[in-house]
Design goal:
- By secondary structure, the chain is mainly α.
- The protein is built from 19 helices and six strands.
- The strands form three sheets. It has a two-stranded antiparallel sheet. Strands 3-4 form a two-stranded parallel sheet. A two-stranded antiparallel sheet has the order 5-6.
- Strand 1 and strand 2 (about 145-150) form a beta hairpin.
Amino acid sequence: MIERYTLPGMGSIWEDKFKFDTWLKIEIYACEARYKMGEIPEKEFEIIKTKAKFDVKRVLEIEETTKHDVIAFLTNVAEYVGPESRHIHYGMTSSDILDTTLSYQMKAAGELLLERLEELKSALKKRALEHKNTVCVGRSHGVHAEPTTMGLKFALWYEETKRNIQRLKDAVEVISVGQISGAVGTFEHLSPKIEEYVCERMGLKPAPVSTQIIQRDRHAQFLTTIAVIGATLEKIAVEIRHLQRTEVLEAEEYFSKGQKGSSAMPHKRNPVISERITGLSRVLRGNAMASLEDVALWHERDISHSSVERIIIPDSCIALDYMLDLTIKLISNLLVYPEHMLKNLELTRGLIFSQTVMLKLINKGVTREDAYKMVQTPAMNVWADEKKNLKEELLNSSEIQKYLSKKEIDNIFDFTKMLKNVDFIFSRTVEKIE
C-alpha cells in the first residue's frame, strides 16, 4: 500500500509537523520491513507501531542541546516508545530520512503546482478563444509591426504553459526517489529490501545509486524548472504591463471597487499584480542558481547544501504557488479594450502594410532590393509628417503606380486579409484535439 497525503495547501508541506510526520512514517516502515524479514520480534514491532509519536515542541527543545535535528527527533520518539526504540533508525543515517522526506515533500509540492498550472492552462484557453479574432497591432522592438490578434497572445502563453506542465512532470518524476542505504550508500548494515519496501510505501522509487545523500542534480532540475515556469509568468506579466501603459491601454488588470492605486494620485490604476509577479520571478531564478551550486559536494557528502535548501526549496514552491494563483486571477479578470486596439492600429497611418506593398511589387517583377527602396521612401515620409499616410503616399508615387493600380493599392489596406491563417494556428494549439 502506497502512502497517500491530504494537504490543505502548499505551506503545510513545509511545516515541522508534516516533516516530522513523514520522518516517523519512514522509520516505522523501515521497522515494519525488518519485522517482516524476521529481524524484529512481532511483539516489539507492535509496541513501536502503537507507541511511536513525537511532540514538535519537545523535538525542538531537545535540538537546542543536541544541535542535531534527527537525533533530537529520535530521542523524543524513544521517550514514547521505550526500550523497543533500539530498533528504530537501525543501520540508517540521518540523510536516509532527511532526503527521502525531502523528495516526498517536493513530489507533493510539485503535484500541487501541476494542479495550478492546469488551472492556468484552462484560463488561457478560455481567453484565447474569446479573443481569437480581436485584432491588435503586433510589435517588434516595441514598435508597430503588423496586425495580430489578442487571442494569439493568449494562445502563445497557453502553449508555453503546456510545455511547463511537461517540464514539471519530468522534474517531479526525477525527484520522486528515496534512499535507505546507510552511512555512505552501501547498505552495509541493512538489506536493500528495506529501502525498496519503504520507497514503495511512500510512493517513491529507490535511487539506483546514492552516497550518504540523494544526488542534488535532481533537486536542481526541480528548481530550475520552477524558475522557467516563473519566467513564463513574468513574460505574461511584462506584456500586460506594457499593454496597460496609458499611451497603449489595450488591456488592463481588473481594478476592484474600493481599490486604490496611489497614496498621492487618486486617478492611478497601476499593474501591481503583474509587477509583483515580475519581481518574484527574480527570486525563483536566484534560488535556481543556488540549487546548481549545491550539486557539487565533497566526496560522499558534506552539508553545504543543507542550509541553502531549507530556504530555497520551500520558498520557491510557495512563491510559485502564489504566483500561479495571481496569474490565474490576472488572466481570468483581465480587461481587454478592442476599441483601443483598433485606434492604435491606425496610429502609424498605414505603415503596418509596408511589407504587403513590397511583396506586391516583387510579384510584379521588381527585385527585392528595389521594392524595399520604393516602399521605404514613402514610409519614411509618413514617419516624418503625422499628416501623411502610406496609402496616399503610394497613390502619389509615380514610381509605384508603374506597377500597382489604385484598385490594387486599395485592396492592400485590409488587415483582415493579413489574419487569414489565425484559424490554422488555433487548430494547431488551443483548438487541437488531444
